[in-house]
Amino acid sequence: MKKVFFIGLGLIGGSIALSIKKEYDDYEMIGYDIQDDQTKMAKALNVIDEVASSIKEGAEGADFIILSTPVEQTICILSELGKIKLKTNAIITDVGSTKKKIVEHAKRTLPNHVTFIGGHPMAGSHKSGVIAAKAHLFENAFYILTPNENESEENVNQLKALLKGTKAQFVVMNPEEHDYITGIISHFPHIIAASLVHQAEKNEDHFPLIKRMAAGGFRDITRIASGNPIMWRDILLHNKNIISKLFEQWIEEMKKLQKMVQEENGHEIYTYFHQAKTYRDGLPERQKGAIPSFYDLYVDVPDYPGVISEITGYLAKENISITNIQIIEAREEIYGVLRISFQSEHDRDQANQCIKKYTNYETFIQ
Ligand SMILES: NC(=O)C1=CN([C@@H]2O[C@H](COP(=O)(O)OP(=O)(O)OC[C@H]3O[C@@H](n4cnc5c(N)ncnc54)[C@H](O)[C@@H]3O)[C@@H](O)[C@H]2O)C=CC1
Ligand SMILES: O=C(O)C(=O)Cc1ccc(O)cc1
């Protein structure tokens, strides 16, 4: 039996472990986490088979090692792994949101008889901990791999095979390109989201209604600010150079926009928003329902054939009519992947109760 050793049993480590378990029953899954309660919970939830009492104990004899800790911890753990007698040809990977520092550190610290392939599943949520882990968290999401230039295809394929159960789309790129892209689409937006929350909070003394009224758009654009502050602190520190460049670009952009507003240049403001709208509307992830509906329920389900009939079957049993049903493929921005539309709020509430009665799927109303 091959051994997979997980270091860090939170949302991402737990989700990967579940996806491997779902795909294969001939791997021994061993886990370690500095938080005892996470390890115990992982064992109780059957996310792992065995608990290792230390990194050394789990790493010796492991065929695969998956590091799923905040990125600065990943650096420390790589140093620790460098001092342990690892199995020849072991494949080590991580899931960190930054790649350059981690890949460079792995090159420096790990022995030549093991392989390190950087990894980053590009999906997740603002939730933490193994309790939020799901086997289907990465379904349809991009999963970036950053192997060294001279890495054998066989090793990359072995890792892809291990991670097959994630049902993610693998993309290979170099760590610099990865950090630039994620800097733009993930790390910098996190900074903006957090800064908008601070701006609202700072103005609350003068306008106490802010908190109650900050629903809708404000909630949407700031959702990611609820992410784990340790994880995000580490990401910013790792990607400092690229984020510094993005700060400069952003400040220039804000100055340009500020000038348009100060000069009351309606034409330029319109063009600015119009261009942004055109680009945003052309993004591939979102698929809009054919029927416009205001009473939507999102159900977080695995994307398998028959899932729609399963859900509609329960609703039919309870005589609840729906106006539209659709699988949304992107897991970012939205919590549930199945969108069901109803004619009234009453129907939607009934459906919510019905799905909770027959299934364990999580439901959300946006
Ligand atoms: N949360 C998200 O949406 C995504 C996160 N990532 C990356 O995944 C990694 C893990 O994030 P999450 O699973 O969300 O965080 P999490 O907070 O749910 O889990 C991290 C786990 O690592 C453990 N840990 C911390 N230091 C450790 C150490 N020295 N030894 C052993 N265990 C240790 C913690 O106790 C915790 O259980 C981070 O590097 C993050 O950048 C990647 C994609 C998405
Ligand atoms: O909550 C969300 O929408 C996210 O953006 C989750 C996320 C966080 C960190 C990553 O490196 C990738 C995805």
UniProtKB/TrEMBL annotation:
Annotated Prephenate/arogenate dehydrogenase domain residues: 2-291
Q: What Gene Ontology molecular function terms does this protein carry?
A: prephenate dehydrogenase (NAD+) activity
Domain (ACT): give its ranges.
Answer: 296-366
PROSITE patterns tied to this protein: ACT (PS51671), PDH_ADH (PS51176)
Catalytic reactions on record: prephenate + NAD(+) = 3-(4-hydroxyphenyl)pyruvate + CO2 + NADH
- Coiled-coil annotation reads none
Sorted keywords for this record are: Amino-acid biosynthesis, Aromatic amino acid biosynthesis, NAD, Oxidoreductase, Tyrosine biosynthesis
- The answer, when asked if Oxidoreductase is one of the entry's keywords, is yes
InterPro entries registered for this protein in UniProt: 6-PGluconate_DH-like_C_sf (IPR008927), ACT-like_dom_sf (IPR045865), ACT_dom (IPR002912), NAD(P)-bd_dom_sf (IPR036291), PDH_C (IPR046825), PDH_N (IPR046826), Preph/Arog_dehydrog (IPR050812), Prephen_DH (IPR003099)
Give the enzyme's EC designation.
1.3.1.12
Question: What's the family?
Answer: Belongs to the prephenate/arogenate dehydrogenase family.
Question: What is this protein's record name?
Answer: Prephenate dehydrogenase
* Native species: Aeribacillus alveayuensis
